[in-house]
Amino acid sequence: MKEKVHFMEFDQSFDGSNALSVDVEDYFQVWALQDYIDRDRWDSLECRIERNLHRILQLFDDANARATFFWLGWAAERFPGLVREVVERGHEIASHGYSHVHVYEQSQEEFRRDVSKTKALLEDISGTAVVGYRAASYSINGSNLWALDTLAQTGHRYSSSIYPIRHDHYGMREAPRFAFRYGESGLVEIPITTVEFFGWRFPCGGGGYFRLLPYRFSKHCLMKVNETDRKPAVFYFHPWEIDPNQPRVDGIDFRTRFRHYVSLDRFESKLVHLAGDFRWDTMASVYAGIL
After folding, report:
1. CA neighbours within 13 Å on the CB side: how many for 242?
2. Which terminus of the chain is more exposed, N or C, with fewer CB under 10 A?
3. SS3 of 132, please?
4. Structural domains in the chain, sorted by start
């Protein structure tokens, strides 16, 4: 018989601010393209993180929005000045692991080394404490919850690595929709936001769903979370999503092409509306009361 997993949910009410986050990785580092672009090619490809992040930082300034930037260590090493600029402009630095390897592809010791290395690297570059972590492709699930204990042991205070939905490559449908604590480690898990209609659960916290669906639907869902559930929303996106002119990868299958490129040309305008229609702050600020 499968052991029942116990979670401790927090009774946290909504105070007006939602959590905005950016997973800092380039177009050639995403999960959807990993079968087409080897990691040993990364250094030979055009990196577009710098130009895209500058546009994002200006957009956030215009909307008076603050966000958490989950950096790949690989990217931070190559753009240390940009890491520091993110901090200087009032945002939070957090970890996305070093090179976008799924947690379920690592042993416990490999994972420990990866998150320890990346945390130390980001703290050295930014001059700030790094307390947050987000797994590549939300790759913490019911099979590797030990990762949450490892994160606590390595000095992290929260994770945003579990997506409480069913998906063909990630997700943990049985996980709570809102912030919770698992086990005795003290680590807080803050899932990406979902919404429920008539018993059905839908993702509404960013990614390809935000690009694909009309903005008014996403806005309605986030307002429902705030007004009906009385909880803050957690939204995420990637710098490459505001970059419709990014280099196209040849030879990819239709499903991968659709997932990666759908509606890139409309994403930035949607993001402008999103930043202006809601109040946004960092993960650490929104959840300060439970961290």
Report:
1. 25
2. N
3. strand
4. 7-290 (3.20.20.370)
* CA gap 217, 180 in Å, rounded: 27
- CA–CA separation, 54 vs 226, rounded Å? 29
Amino acid type, 199: G
pLDDT tens for the chain, 291 residues long, are 344 566 888 887 789 999 999 999 999 999 888 889 999 999 999 999 999 999 999 999 999 999 999 999 999 999 999 999 999 999 999 999 999 999 999 999 999 999 999 999 999 999 999 999 999 999 999 889 999 999 999 999 999 999 887 665 665 778 899 999 988 788 999 999 999 988 888 889 998 889 999 999 999 999 999 999 999 999 999 999 999 999 999 889 988 888 888 889 999 999 999 999 999 999 999 999 999
Choose among 184, 199, 100: nearest CA to 145.
Answer: 184
What tokens appear for 94 in the block? 């957090």
Residues 6+ apart with CB under 8 A from 193: 177, 203, 204, 205, 222, 225, 233, 234, 235
Q: How far is the C-alpha of 249 from the C-alpha of 201, rounded, in Å? A: 33
